[in-house]
Amino acid sequence: MHLFYKLLRWFFFSVVIALVPIFCTFLFLAGDGKNFSLAEALAHGELLLIAVAIASDAIGDLIGSGKEKTGLKISCGAGCLLSVLCGSAYFGHVTSEPKVDANFVYWYSLWVFFGTLIASGSCKLLAEETRR
User: Fold this and answer.
1) What's the domain count of the chain?
2) Which structural domain range is residue 94 located in?
3) What is the secondary structure of the chain as a DSSP string?
């Protein structure tokens, strides 16, 4: 159960808190009485930056966790590295292009974010498990 509580703490105090700016966007849009959608709130790529930060943190934990389960660590670390690269590169594209397809940014951001959660959660578990 110890690992479960560590993962739960990571989720609430890293992932959920990192999402607060997006929740605030919803509150401000709703407070202004504007019609809005999740796609509009995520159309600027902020979720990509959150994914990059979460994945980077997980890679940092994994690096200092010892040599046990090396194959699994390489796989999970590679997933996080892929998230960092895809999220960073596409965020750079979104911010440098005058017109981007907001719907594509929305879906791409969601895929990168949820992939990051899986890879990062795995890294966190492996790092904690091999530190004991």
Assistant:
1) 1
2) 39-131
3) -HHHHHHHHHIIIIIIHHTHHHHHHHHHHHHTT----HHHHTTTSHHHHHHHHHHHHHHHHHHTS-STTHHHHHHHHHHHHHHHHHHHHHHHHHHH-S---HHHHHHHHHHHHHHHHHHHHHHHHHHHHHH-
